[in-house]
């Protein structure tokens, strides 16, 4: 009696498990959609009540929290070619201070 599965049986089993996991992810996202929308509305109401104005993109350094309110030289306080200490600054585009504003 051969105890080894054929390669096609193993491949189809792995594919079935992967498809089931993907389907479970989609079902979970659909179930959470309404509760997340309610949580977003509650956070927006709280921000309006507390009159919060800070965008707070990241929680690390002051120049990554809100780019418009940042000190432009704080990222290079050690020296001009210094590497940034915070990884979130890599996700921000460069400041366009040299372009004229409309």
What would your notes on this structure say?
This protein is an all-alpha fold. It has two helices and no strands. The chain folds into two domains: 1-52; 55-102, no CATH class.
Largest sheet, strands/sense/barrel: none
Kindly state the mean pLDDT as a whole number? 77
Structural class: mainly alpha
Number of helices: 2
Shape: flat
Proportion in helices? 40-55%
| Beta fraction | under 5%
Following the backbone from N to C, one meets helices and strands in this order, namely HH
Number of domains: 2
Q: Kindly state the number of beta strands.
A: 0
**Span between N and C termini?**
80 Å
Give short descriptive properties of this protein.
2 domains; mainly alpha; flat; 102 residues
Write the SSE topology.
Elements: H1 7-50, H2 62-65
What's the quick description here?
This protein has helices at residues 7-50, 62-65. By secondary structure, the protein is mostly helical.
């Amino acid at each position: 009696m051969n105890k080894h599965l054929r390669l096609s049986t193993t491949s189809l089993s792995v594919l079935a498990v992967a498809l089931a996991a993907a389907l479970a992810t989609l079902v979970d996202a659909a179930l959470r959609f309404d509760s997340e929308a309610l949580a977003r509305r509650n956070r927006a109401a709280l921000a309006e009540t507390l009159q919060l104005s800070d965008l707070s993109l990241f929680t690390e350094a002051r120049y990554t929290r809100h780019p418009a309110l940042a000190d432009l030289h704080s990222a290079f306080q050690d020296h001009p070619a210094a590497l940034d200490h915070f990884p979130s600054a890599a996700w921000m585009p460069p400041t366009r201070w040299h372009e004229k504003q409309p």
